[in-house]
Write a structure and sequence with these properties.
Elements lengths: L1 E5 L8 E4 L2 H4 L5 H15 L58 H18 L2 E4 L7 H11 L5 E5 L5 H5 L5 E5 L5 H6 L2 E5 H12 L1
Helix pairs in contact: 2-3
């Protein structure tokens, strides 16, 4: 698959880059993308710290007093939640939010996410991403006709990432951080040549 390489430099000559069809030419499947996105969002969830309930508190189980005639409530022991130091009633419990997903399915989902932008025509390939000022970068994105939400993936997180972090609707990631959720969420996907090389090497390696 050949894609035109664009540049922030108006004087640069237009060129084409050959994209690997095994990475950018797949037919996206909703079930695969759904499985990967669900797995990714579940992995983000943090588990609550478990609290000690009545059975977990180490206190005496001896009955406080006689059942009748004491003029007080008929408590069984001091592990009850009404006492200071007693167990927590209906406390938070440790839950497992660490699902597993086959590596092949994860890799396939990322390929399909990249392919979905290539097939939809919302994939932009840049020769380089070396703008140092936010004002200049904002003007360059206007010429690229990107959507409301743009994801830029470069080979590494360089100095240009500082220029783009204040732009509204623009997210930036290094190639090592490319993931299905952020790619699908973006209206336009911008990849540099370095990012394309690293992504293709990631799957071929």
């Amino acid at each position: 698959m050949k894609v035109k390489v664009q540049s922030f430099d108006a004087k640069a000559k237009a060129a084409d880059v050959e994209l690997n069809d095994e990475v950018f030419g797949l037919d996206p499947r909703a079930d695969i993308l759904h499985r990967v996105v669900t797995w990714q969002l579940e992995k983000r969830r943090a588990t609550a710290r478990g609290t000690r309930e009545r059975a977990d508190v180490a206190r005496s189980g001896k009955k406080l007093g006689r059942q009748k005639g004491g003029g007080v409530a008929r408590h069984g022991d001091r592990r009850a939640p009404v006492f200071v130091g007693g167990g927590k009633a209906h406390g938070a419990r440790v839950r497992d939010f660490n699902p597993s997903l086959n590596k092949k399915i994860r890799a396939l989902g990322l390929k399909m996410a990249l392919s979905s932008h290539a097939k939809a025509g919302s994939l932009v390939i840049l020769d380089a991403f070396d703008v140092a000022k936010t004002k200049d970068l904002k003007g360059h994105f206007a010429t690229l006709n990107t959507g409301k939400r743009t994801l830029v993936i470069d080979g590494d997180a360089g100095e240009a990432f500082r220029a783009g972090r204040n732009l509204v609707g623009v997210d930036m990631l290094p190639a090592v951080g490319a993931n299905v959720y952020d790619i699908i969420k973006a209206d336009t996907l911008v990849l540099t040549r370095a990012a394309v090389e690293k992504l293709e090497a990631r799957f071929n390696g």
